[in-house]
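Action item from last week, closing it out:
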Amino acid sequence: MNATVEDIEGDVSRRDFIYLATGAFAAVGGAVALWPFIDQMNPDASTMSLSTIEVDISPVQVGQAITVLWRGMPIFVRNLTPEEIGKAKAVEVADLKDPVARLLGSTAELPASAANITKPGKENWLIAVGICTHLGCVPKGQSPGDPRGPYGGYFCVCHGSIYDTLGRVRGGPAPRNLDIPPYEFTGEAKIKLG
């Protein structure tokens, strides 16, 4: 029996369908097999429980600072003095190396003014991520004996980045201001990070 052109074309279209169906089946099977490996990379419950923490800041007196850990990052909590607040407010945002306030989780490009870095009515509290924006070092300035640089804020001894009391970069190789984590005051002397 001789094969006709129609028979050959029919075989080709059936063969193409079988190849496509086999490929689709293999792709779906591969995705199902990989899902447990991908899913195990999600944070576990203990990590997620640390995504928000409450911090009692009542023991922090004017001029003092503490460092807390949030999501594995040091968070600087500083009770600014009236003099530090006055100096910070007097700085023209246009004169800053980085004129943008960096709020974690936000894409808003707000000016790096004291009003955008602190909370209304709580201008004496700086809450900032304590990681230098140059190479990820932890700047000095939290302890009373630490070098703070000429602006009285933070000084990264590793590479010489200088920040003012609001965590705004004022000199050195750091390209941008310290990040501000998402936080809110839940009481007169409590903050919730995250």
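Closing note: The first strand starts at residue 53 and ends at 56.
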